[in-house]
Amino acid sequence: MTMNAFASSNSPLTREAMEPFWLPMTPNRQFKSKPRIFVGAEGMHYVTDDNRRILDGMAGLWCVNAGHAQRRIVEAIQAQAAKLDFVSSFQMSHPAAFELARRITEIAPAGLDHVFFTNSGSEAVDTALKIARGYHRAHGDASRIRFISRAKAYHGMGWGGLSVSGIVRHRRDFGPLLPEVDHLPHTHNPEHAAFSRGQPQWGAHLADELSKLLQVHDPSTIAAVIVEPVTGSGGVLPPPVGYLERLRKICDQHGILLIFDEVITGFGRLGAAFGANAFGVTPDIITCAKGMTNAAVPMGGVIASGKVYDALMQGPDNAIELFHGYTYSAHPLACAAGLAALDVYQDLGLFERARRLAPVWENHAHGLRDLPHVIDIRNIGLLAAIDLKPREGAPGARGSECANRCYEDGILIRGSGDTLLISPPLIITEEQIADIFAAIRRALTGIS
């Protein structure tokens, strides 16, 4: 299919036609006065309703790892819809669910060998938190109900995930949230680690803040520590060298489960199947989503260790071990998309490609260091963040203007406050990497 085939023959949407749709995470009134509408996508590009090609520097929303409209994934979904459109996984299932679970465990770190399917990263996090509490109750440790997360963390929009998240604006309007939660400090410290390339050398000691929290909360009350191996929406914060290893050691010392939220870092973003593989640190549970199906069908999952799974496999064989699940868990279309996505990742060597391109990506990102307004740059794998100095009296305005200028220049990146976030499909070329950062350069030199 050619890109011209995506051209829209319809008239632009009117304000009246848009009004019924309440967009998520969007200033709806502003958007509907000047909408950004996509009508097609292929490879590295979106197509707008006025037939402009937009280079996707965000992989949709950190999720289209193999690029848009991958033919193998599209055809797998189509074939599955014609064969078996739906079957519940409540006391029944279908072959693709078992095959997808097997193949995910094959690429996960050794020992993580059971998958519980959800429909999103938010559901995966809530599921993981429930499993953690259930695990300890099965061991007779019903007092282990507390969770420890981290400032700047994003763990989705479910009630549990929001409670452990550490982004103030996400939490502000919806409290009280779960009370049995505490937070570690984040690892971002420009004074000691500004413009780090990859993992900062400074900051491993911040993991010891967990030991300090255990002096406040009896360790026997802690169910799990949940962290993103790389903080994503909170600003692309790679873990300091040795940091994750220290967390793992402290958790082991006190019988606390360690959960890695890999909704963003899973499926190749860091040049490996999961961040756990990339960093050589194995948690007890991994949550995943996004790249799991290349975003073609919503899906998430919880990958659990045998230790966690076996603890819940108690009682009579005919008893439900975990009273939890979703109508669309292991949906046949999602499983078909997931299996095809894994094939595409393997056949195109995309995890290896991301690893190979990471130094090129890094050099282009840090090439913006001396531009106006830039106060920090961070990168790891095919992730990058650029912090801009806030405009006096208008925090967030400079980042928003820069992202909008890039969009008008044909490049989609994300402005989060005064931080620019970039996370492209793993099929990106070196030339397209150069195009992304050239557009950011033009934008930064053109704003006050």
Automatic annotation (TrEMBL):
<dbReference type="GO" id="GO:0004015">
    <property type="term" value="F:adenosylmethionine-8-amino-7-oxononanoate transaminase activity"/>
</dbReference>
<dbReference type="GO" id="GO:0009102">
    <property type="term" value="P:biotin biosynthetic process"/>
</dbReference>
<dbReference type="GO" id="GO:0030170">
    <property type="term" value="F:pyridoxal phosphate binding"/>
</dbReference>
<dbReference type="Pfam" id="PF00202">
    <property type="entry name" value="Aminotran_3"/>
</dbReference>
<comment type="similarity">
    <text>Belongs to the class-III pyridoxal-phosphate-dependent aminotransferase family.</text>
</comment>
<keyword id="KW-0663">Pyridoxal phosphate</keyword>
<keyword id="KW-0032">Aminotransferase</keyword>
<protein>
    <submittedName>
        <fullName>Aspartate aminotransferase family protein</fullName>
    </submittedName>
</protein>
<dbReference type="InterPro" id="IPR015424">
    <property type="entry name" value="PyrdxlP-dep_Trfase"/>
</dbReference>
<dbReference type="InterPro" id="IPR049704">
    <property type="entry name" value="Aminotrans_3_PPA_site"/>
</dbReference>
<dbReference type="InterPro" id="IPR015421">
    <property type="entry name" value="PyrdxlP-dep_Trfase_major"/>
</dbReference>
<dbReference type="InterPro" id="IPR015422">
    <property type="entry name" value="PyrdxlP-dep_Trfase_small"/>
</dbReference>
<dbReference type="InterPro" id="IPR005814">
    <property type="entry name" value="Aminotrans_3"/>
</dbReference>
<keyword id="KW-0808">Transferase</keyword>
